[in-house]
């Protein structure tokens, strides 16, 4: 069953919290030194407060809903306009209107069932309508789930490498 993709609204906090906590459990098992499971006590209320915040026309929050289960996925994205100093930058994308997907989370029970694809397609369509000509996101390279999703299903290509080092005190 294809989910209904719609704008986020008050009352969606519990489903968003469920998807976010599931994502935390998944990624923390892969890279516990980088990812943690969010504290679940008060997480739905935290999302409810975020849902009520005023957004600009260049900010998107959508959810995937499947009755009777409710919200089973969430996406947050933004359109970034060209940088004022783009002509001085070496990265071409800074001169382009970009869709940046900051968050995509799907509850464990609905992964690999088209929910993430539907959310990404909705965000990309919204981005195109807002003038975006390129889309970017990031994920953890250790993930056997999300890397193939973005590269094989959604057509994204690796563009950069984020390097990390834990600094020891000494």
Automatic annotation (TrEMBL):
A molecular function (GO) term: acyltransferase activity, transferring groups other than amino-acyl groups
Keywords, comma-separated and alphabetical: Acyltransferase, Transferase
Classification via PROSITE patterns: GNAT
Domain of life, per lineage: Bacteria
SUPFAM superfamilies: Acyl-CoA N-acyltransferases (Nat) (SSF55729)
Transferase in keyword set: yes
Domain annotation N-acetyltransferase: ranges: 3-170
InterPro entries in the cross-refs: Acyl_CoA_acyltransferase, Bact_Acetyltransf, GNAT_dom
The protein's name in its UniProt record: N-acetyltransferase domain-containing protein
């Amino acid at each position: 069953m294809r989910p209904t993709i719609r704008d986020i609204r008050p009352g969606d906090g519990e489903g968003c919290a469920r998807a976010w906590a599931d994502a935390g459990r998944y990624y923390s098992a892969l890279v516990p030194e980088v990812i943690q499971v969010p504290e679940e006590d008060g997480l739905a209320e935290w999302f409810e407060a975020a849902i009520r915040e005023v957004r600009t026309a260049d900010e998107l929050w959508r959810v995937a809903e499947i009755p009777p289960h409710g919200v089973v996925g969430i996406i947050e994205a933004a359109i970034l306009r060209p940088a004022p100093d783009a002509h001085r930058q070496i990265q071409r994308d800074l001169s382009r209107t970009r869709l940046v997907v900051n968050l995509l989370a799907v509850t464990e029970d609905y992964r690999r069932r088209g929910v993430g694809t539907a959310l990404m397609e909705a965000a990309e369509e919204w981005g195109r309508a807002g003038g975006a000509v390129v889309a970017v996101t990031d994920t953890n390279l250790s993930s056997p789930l999300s890397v193939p999703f973005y590269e094989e299903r959604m057509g994204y290509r690796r563009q950069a490498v984020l390097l990390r080092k834990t600094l020891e005190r000494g």
